[in-house]
């Protein structure tokens, strides 16, 4: 997992809960990186789960909510960092439809070792979009946050419903309605 | 430290670590980047290099293609869709006679004759629509110099992807503007390759023309082979060639027999052309001298403009309206006998080379036809002549096939054995001749067909007389022969009469010789009395006149006797009674005898006598010794007779022949006598001839000597030659041809020497003979101490003896009363105890048919009278013998001189001599009457033989020799010595 995700996560934690909480979750989690992250580095996704788990324990906020919040937050960060990637899209659905074949392709060009989820478009109309998320990481909450962040980025309102297509939550159907 | 500070420090520391981590990462990344960059750079370099290389290669290939395009002999050009030339190779410029620059931009169709353009379009359109890449079209093109060239063209589109493109169709239809205005057509150029086939096309046309000419020639030749007559054939030939060439007039001229003038004999005129034949008769060549000269030297008179021809020819051609002309000679065996001409009155015809060649061939064909015509005419005449000859000869001529069928028959004979053939239903010799004769004819026909010719003679009864015929067969072909039969009865009769006359003449000649021989013998007997008494009287008469008369009688008598002897020999030779017996002879010994024989005469004349025998002469040769002696005696006798001083030289040598076992013996007798004139040399060999002027009185002789020599030489395969100079001497040279060398001579010589060099081991010899006398002879020959002789007088007696006493060898007479030699020997052969004993036949006469039986039954045979060497050879072969050394051999030889048997019988012999022979001797010794002496000699000889007395025998031989040679002196000497012989014999009594 890219260091940028860790950096932005710790930034968000510091912003929301202060550096003390950041220090707390780093100090109380067994991390191979000792909590030192740089945006250009790559770290195990286990560390993310550990940090989120530690934060949830400290703040009493469920992990899923934390991932959701982080997803929403980080899309804004990505939107600023990689404006040129989003610039060509007129609305959120257009963008979401091209995540798999454009965004992820570009990401893999930069980070060939990145392990990305598959985002398939199942159905689409102007008001309605069905996406199928598939990933071994089972981070559908993070994905939901990202979708929410995207809607926000394009200043659109939509309801996002989630349906697990597999028991281990590795495959999830998102239904987005404007 | 406050809690915040602590946190801050921690944060700063983490950020510092993160920064360091980031820096490290960045550094790694930038290093990676750097390396990637380097790699990229080198890749880029490689790429540039590759591009450069490929570009160069492309350039090279382009150059190659360019060179190829430029070196090819075909025109290659590219044409754009407007039909304008955009590329053209150098050869095109050469072929078209225009520079590249001039060609570029021109429309390609401008080079093609208008009427070909649409054809070409249609053709290639068809080919392209079938998607054929390569297809050719032959078409003419116009060069810059307005010449027409023929080319074979192939057209290709540069881009094949729009195969089915409609635009292509448009283009092919000639709608080029539509194509150009359309911008999505992918082809924009057409490649045209054109191969220059002008030369080939010309050749093809030439071949076609030649074929046509061939047809014309064939037509003319075939025309001549048709059955029509020669004249109409020739007219037809002239027409054919005239129509083919399309000239105004064709004509043949034939020269007069003297070759001085010429006449038009055949003519063909094209439509609207006037005939000239009647005006052109007997034109003298003197009017047109150039004509014959040109025909002879150039072999042609030719001009497409007659103004160019010599004046004399022009003057004769112009009035006929001729504008161009070609004339060729008609030639037979190298001589011009006329000509064939072609006139053109309408235009100046330019004759091509091949046309001229055609005319030449036509002229030669017509010449040949003329020749053939002439030969045929000659043949007909010759046939007529031959027929006349055949009709007039008296022979009968038949043409027959293998079966004897008569195909034709011709006879001028009044009487013929083939008469029957004149009957219509008879057509085979089988029906005409007898069975035997017709079979002979059939087999002769077969023989003739194999050999080519054959002859046979036959006779046949015809009208009750025997007629003789000669039949000559000549092969005509593989199944037929010509038979020429000639009646030769008359010739045969003449020959027969001639043969009878010849036989009569020969008989008369033989009778003459026989008469002469008989007369000579009868004369000899009275001559003995005349000579003998004359001599006696001569020595007893005192009166000198009487003595002189007697001397004359004696000399005349001797001469007469010599003449008679010679005549006898000559008549023997002439009547063919002279037999030649070739036996091994020692040449040297015979020659040496001459010296002895002529000793007295040589001494009396004081002549030297030299003998030289070349080492090449073999020791023994097969020769008739008596005749050789006679020849030598005559030659030497002559030499002595005609030589008064100097020497006689006899030499003999041998020359090799092709047969290694034979030589040519060369004998020469040279003297220093009177010599013989050159013009008389040839006569010396004729009978009864002596040199003219030769004093008969001085040089006595019959003149028959050399004639006898000549006759003998004929018998002995010899020839004689003479070299002589008057006053200097003569040299007679004799060459005996192919004289056989006696090969066994050395062996026999050795045997002769060895004769007495052995003795027999103790043995028993049985001699069987009904005549006691014969047994005695054999016993006298086999005289060894150790031998026991058994004697039998018949076959029965011999078998009887053998039952008690076994001999080691048997000598068996054949003809005996009772059991003969064959029967007795068969008994011996059939007895196993005896059959190992050698039995030698011992007989006087053997018929040829008996020889085989003798060889089968006997081990060997001896012929009576037996010679010691033969008997000894038999003994050596079958008996155990012991060889002696030289001294012992000598002793035996001495002893043998008078055999033991003889010594034993000596008292009896001496008594016989004294009681009978001495008395007789005393009576005759002084009278010297030859026949008395002959009788005495004969009786004594018989006595000597019976008594096996060698001394007496030798005496008789010497005496006989003297009598035979009528040498009175020698006879006197010999007969006078008889008492001494008796005395000698008496010495052996001791």
Automatic annotation (TrEMBL), chain A:
Query: Which InterPro entries does the record match to this protein?
Result: H-NOX_domain_sf, Heme_NO-bd, NO_sig/Golgi_transp_ligand-bd
Q: Where is the Heme NO-binding domain?
A: 2-161
What is the name listed in the Swiss-Prot or TrEMBL entry for this protein?
Heme NO-binding domain-containing protein
Q: From which organism does this entry originate?
A: Marinifilum caeruleilacunae
From TrEMBL, chain B:
* Every Response regulatory domain range: 764-879
Coiled-coil spans are: 12-57, 488-518
Under Pfam families, the record lists: GAF, HATPase_c, HisKA, PAS, Response_reg
Q: Which residues carry this modification: 4-aspartylphosphate?
A: 813
Q: What are the EC numbers? A: 2.7.13.3
Q: Which organism is it from?
A: Marinifilum caeruleilacunae
Q: What is this protein called?
A: histidine kinase
Q: Which SMART domains match?
A: GAF, HATPase_c, HisKA, PAS, REC
Tell me where in this chain the PAS domain is found: 61-132
Instruction: Tell me which residues make up the Histidine kinase domain.
Output: 518-740
């Amino acid at each position: 997992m890219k260091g940028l995700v860790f950096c932005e996560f710790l930034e968000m934690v510091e912003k929301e809960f202060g550096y003390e909480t950041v220090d707390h979750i780093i100090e109380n989690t067994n991390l191979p990186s000792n909590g030192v992250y740089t945006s250009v580095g790559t770290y195990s996704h286990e560390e993310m789960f550990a940090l989120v788990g530690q934060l949830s324990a400290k703040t009493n906020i469920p992990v899923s909510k934390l991932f959701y919040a982080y997803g929403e937050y980080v899309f804004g960060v990505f939107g600023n960092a990689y404006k040129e990637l989003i610039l060509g899209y007129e609305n959120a659905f257009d963008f979401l439809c091209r995540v798999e074949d454009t965004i992820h392709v570009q990401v893999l060009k930069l980070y060939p070792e990145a392990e990305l989820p598959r985002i398939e478009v199942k159905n689409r109309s102007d008001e309605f979009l069905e996406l199928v998320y598939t990933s071994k990481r089972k981070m559908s909450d993070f994905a939901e946050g990202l979708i929410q962040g995207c809607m926000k980025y394009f200043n659109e309102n939509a309801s996002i419903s989630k349906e697990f297509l597999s028991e281990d939550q590795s495959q999830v159907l998102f239904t987005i309605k404007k | 430290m406050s809690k915040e500070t602590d946190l801050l420090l921690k944060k700063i520391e983490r950020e510092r670590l993160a920064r360091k981590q980031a820096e490290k990462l960045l550094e790694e990344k930038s290093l990676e980047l750097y390396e990637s960059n380097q790699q990229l750079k080198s890749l880029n370099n490689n790429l540039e290099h590759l591009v450069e290389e490929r570009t160069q290669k492309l350039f090279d290939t382009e150059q190659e293609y360019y060179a190829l395009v430029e070196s090819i002999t075909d025109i290659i050009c590219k044409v754009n869709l407007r039909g304008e030339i955009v590329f053209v190779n150098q050869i095109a410029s050469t072929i078209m006679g225009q520079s590249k620059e001039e060609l570029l931009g021109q429309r390609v169709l401008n080079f093609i004759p208008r009427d070909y353009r649409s054809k070409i379009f249609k053709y290639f359109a068809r080919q392209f629509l079938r998607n054929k890449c390569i297809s050719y079209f032959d078409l003419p093109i116009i060069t810059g110099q307005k010449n027409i060239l023929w080319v074979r063209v192939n057209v290709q589109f540069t881009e094949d992807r729009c195969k089915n493109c409609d635009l292509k169709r448009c283009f092919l239809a000639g709608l080029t503007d539509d194509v150009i205005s359309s911008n999505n057509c992918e082809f924009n150029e057409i490649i045209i390759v054109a191969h220059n086939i002008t030369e080939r096309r010309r050749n093809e046309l030439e071949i076609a023309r030649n074929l046509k000419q061939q047809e014309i020639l064939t037509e003319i030749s075939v025309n001549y082979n048709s059955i029509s007559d020669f004249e109409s054939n020739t007219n037809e030939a002239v027409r054919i060639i005239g129509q083919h060439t399309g000239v105004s007039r064709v004509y043949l001229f034939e020269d007069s027999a003297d070759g001085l003038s010429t006449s038009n004999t055949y003519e063909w005129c094209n439509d609207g052309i006037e005939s000239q034949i009647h005006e052109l008769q007997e034109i003298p060549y003197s009017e047109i001298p150039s004509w014959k000269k040109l025909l002879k030297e150039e072999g042609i008179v030719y001009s497409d403009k007659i103004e160019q021809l010599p004046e004399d020819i022009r003057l004769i051609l112009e009035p006929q309206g001729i504008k161009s002309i070609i004339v060729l000679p008609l030639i037979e065996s190298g001589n011009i006998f006329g000509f064939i001409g072609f006139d053109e009155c309408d235009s100046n015809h330019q004759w091509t080379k091949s046309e001229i060649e055609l005319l030449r061939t036509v002229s030669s064909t017509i010449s040949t036809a003329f020749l053939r015509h002439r030969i045929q005419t000659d043949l007909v005449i010759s046939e007529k002549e031959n027929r006349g000859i055949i009709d007039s000869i008296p022979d009968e001529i038949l043409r027959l096939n293998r079966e004897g069928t008569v195909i034709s028959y011709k006879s001028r004979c009044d009487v013929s054995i083939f008469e029957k053939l004149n009957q219509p239903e008879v057509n085979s010799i089988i029906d005409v001749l007898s069975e035997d004769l017709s079979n002979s004819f059939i087999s002769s026909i077969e023989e003739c067909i194999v050999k080519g010719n054959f002859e046979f003679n036959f006779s046949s009864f015809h009208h009750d007389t025997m007629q003789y015929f000669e039949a000559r067969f000549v092969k005509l072909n593989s199944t037929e022969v010509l038979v020429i039969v000639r009646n030769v009865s008359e010739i045969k009769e003449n020959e027969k009469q001639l043969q009878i006359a010849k036989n009569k003449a020969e008989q008369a000649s033989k009778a003459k010789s026989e008469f002469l021989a008989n007369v000579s013998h009868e004369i000899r007997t009275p001559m003995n009395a005349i000579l003998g008494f004359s001599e006696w009287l001569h020595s007893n008469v005192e009166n000198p006149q009487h003595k002189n008369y007697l001397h004359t009688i004696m000399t005349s008598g001797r001469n007469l006797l010599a003449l008679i002897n010679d005549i006898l020999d000559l008549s023997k030779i002439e009547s063919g009674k002279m037999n030649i017996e070739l036996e091994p002879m020692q040449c040297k010994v015979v020659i040496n005898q001459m010296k002895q024989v002529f000793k007295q005469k040589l001494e009396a004349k004081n002549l030297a006598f030299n003998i030289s025998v070349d080492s090449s002469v073999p020791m023994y040769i097969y020769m008739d010794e008596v005749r050789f002696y006679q020849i030598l005696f005559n030659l030497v006798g002559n030499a002595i007779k005609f030589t008064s001083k100097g020497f006689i030289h006899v030499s003999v040598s041998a020359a090799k022949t092709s047969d290694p076992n034979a030589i040519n013996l060369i004998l020469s007798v040279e003297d220093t006598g009177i010599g013989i004139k050159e013009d008389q040399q040839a006569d010396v060999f004729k009978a009864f001839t002596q040199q003219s002027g030769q004093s008969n009185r001085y040089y006595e002789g019959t003149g028959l000597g050399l004639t006898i020599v000549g006759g003998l030489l004929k018998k002995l395969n010899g020839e004689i030659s003479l070299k002589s100079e008057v006053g200097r001497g003569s040299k007679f040279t004799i060459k005996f041809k192919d004289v056989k060398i006696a090969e066994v001579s050395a062996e026999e010589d050795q045997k002769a020497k060895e004769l007495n060099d052995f003795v027999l081991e103790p043995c028993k010899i049985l001699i069987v003979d009904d005549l006691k006398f014969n047994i005695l002879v054999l016993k006298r020959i086999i005289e060894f101490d150790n031998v026991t002789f058994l004697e039998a007088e018949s076959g029965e007696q011999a078998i009887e003896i053998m039952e008690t006493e076994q001999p080691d060898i048997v000598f068996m007479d054949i003809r005996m009363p009772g059991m003969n030699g064959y029967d007795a020997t068969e008994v011996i052969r059939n007895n196993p105890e005896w059959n190992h004993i050698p039995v030698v036949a011992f007989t006087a006469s053997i018929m040829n048919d008996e020889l085989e039986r003798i060889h089968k039954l006997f081990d060997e045979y001896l012929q009576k009278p037996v010679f010691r060497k033969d008997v000894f050879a038999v003994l050596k072969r079958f008996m155990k013998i012991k060889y002696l050394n030289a001294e012992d051999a000598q002793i035996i030889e001495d002893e043998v001189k008078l055999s033991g048997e003889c010594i034993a019988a000596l008292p009896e012999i001496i008594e016989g001599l004294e009681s009978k022979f001495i008395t007789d001797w005393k009576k005759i010794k002084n009278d010297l009457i030859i026949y008395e002496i002959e009788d005495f000699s004969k009786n004594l000889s018989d006595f000597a033989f019976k008594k096996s007395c060698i001394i007496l025998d030798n005496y008789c031989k010497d005496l006989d020799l003297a009598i035979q040679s009528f040498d009175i002196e020698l006879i006197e000497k010999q007969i006078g010595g008889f008492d001494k012989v008796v005395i000698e014999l008496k010495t052996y009594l001791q």
